[in-house]
């Protein structure tokens, strides 16, 4: 858009612009033009001499994206919008740093990328017909002494952090090793207890089996002895019964029982005489007695 003055002459404008030595430093009347740019634009800006609450002196580097929203308001309300941008953003940055220490400033850089941080800038831009779309924080600069101290502090913190992490890893490794050793010892103790219980149980089972076998053997021997004695008694009883019946028949036949017994026993231990009175048949009863030898 071409700016026209009175009587149809071109109207030249002079705004703050980039210094020839440093494009980020803006100086008055460095930008002169007759054609006004209406498209969205941006400027690089460095705000110098910003002091934190602990007296650290730094420079804040920004990029401001803006566009012209109302030409008439701009022509009526300002003769240098760039100067207004510089003043507004400088006030915002100074306020931001003045409430923080240098360490706090370094911990909150993302806030410098948010428009709510730049209230003075946004209000002033709106008052002169401009809209600020975005502000980008591009970093900060410090004096050589402060930067050296800062680098040293970073190096010290990094070294301490690495040493702490190494100590923590070493301690974790020791804890892990100790935990595994304790777990292994506990497992070995349980295995030893299990082996001891198994051994005791096997000994008990072996003793129980031995006693059971002994009881069975004794029961079998007792049963066999009983059966032998019973069989022997049965045989002796049968023999005595047969012998009694035999002798009874002989008596009925009139035989001399004494002579018969003497003939049957070659080496008698007892002598039994059977006599009758002639009128009655003698009754013979024999009872076996164990011979003591």
Brief characterization of the structure:
The chain is an alpha+beta fold and 293 residues long. The chain is built from 6 helices and 5 strands.
Counted by DSSP, the helix tally is 6
* Major sheet size, sense and barrel closure: 3 strands, antiparallel
Q: Order of strands side by side in the largest beta sheet?
A: 3-4-5
Radius of gyration: 66 Å
> pLDDT below 50 for ≥5 consecutive residues: which ranges?
1-10
The chain-level mean pLDDT equals 82
| Helicity range | 40-55%
Global morphology: rod-shaped
N- to C-terminal distance: 159 Å
- Briefly note the structural class of the backbone: alpha+beta
- Order of helix and strand elements from N to C terminus: EEEEHHHHEHH
**Count of distinct strands:** 5
In percent, how much strand structure appears in the residues?
15-25%
Describe this structure in words.
- The chain has 293 residues and is of the alpha+beta class.
- It is built from six helices and five strands, in the order E-E-E-E-H-H-H-H-E-H-H.
- It has helices spanning 71-77, 81-98, 102-107, 119-127, 144-252, 257-264, and strands spanning 13-18, 26-33, 41-51, 57-68, 130-142.
- The strands form two sheets. A three-stranded antiparallel beta sheet has the order 3-4-5.
- A hairpin with a 7-residue loop joins strand 1 and strand 2.
- Helix 2 (81-98) packs antiparallel against helix 4.
- The longest helix has 109 residues, at 144-252.
- The radius of gyration is 66 Å and the shape is rod-shaped.
- Mean pLDDT is 82; it is low at 1-10.
């Amino acid at each position: 858009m071409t700016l026209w003055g009175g009587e149809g002459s071109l109207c030249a404008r002079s705004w703050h612009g980039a210094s020839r030595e440093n494009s980020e430093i803006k100086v008055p009347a460095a930008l002169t033009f007759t054609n006004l740019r209406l498209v969205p634009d941006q400027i690089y800006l460095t705000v110098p001499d910003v002091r934190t609450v602990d007296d650290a002196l730094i420079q804040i580097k920004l990029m401001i994206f803006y566009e012209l929203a109302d030409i008439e308001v701009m022509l009526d309300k300002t003769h240098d919008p760039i100067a207004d941008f510089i003043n507004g953003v400088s006030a915002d940055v100074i306020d931001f740093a003045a409430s923080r220490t240098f360490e706090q400033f370094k911990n909150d850089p993302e806030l410098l990328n948010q428009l709510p941080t730049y209230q003075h800038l946004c209000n002033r831009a709106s008052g002169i017909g401009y809209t600020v779309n975005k502000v980008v924080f591009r970093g900060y600069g410090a004096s050589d002494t402060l930067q050296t101290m800062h680098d040293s502090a970073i190096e010290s913190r990094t070294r301490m952090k690495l040493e702490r992490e190494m100590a923590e890893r070493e301690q974790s490794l020791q804890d892990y090793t100790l935990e595994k050793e304790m777990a292994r010892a506990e497992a070995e103790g349980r295995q030893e207890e299990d082996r001891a219980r198994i051994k005791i149980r096997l000994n008990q089972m072996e003793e129980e089996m031995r006693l059971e076998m002994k009881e069975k053997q004794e029961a079998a021997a007792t049963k066999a002895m009983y059966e032998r004695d019973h069989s022997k008694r049965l045989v002796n009883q049968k023999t005595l019964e047969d012998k009694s019946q035999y002798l009874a028949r002989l008596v009925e036949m009139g035989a001399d029982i004494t002579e018969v017994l003497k003939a049957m026993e070659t080496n008698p231990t007892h002598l039994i005489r059977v006599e009758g009175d002639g009128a009655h048949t003698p009754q013979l009863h024999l009872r076996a007695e164990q011979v003591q030898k």
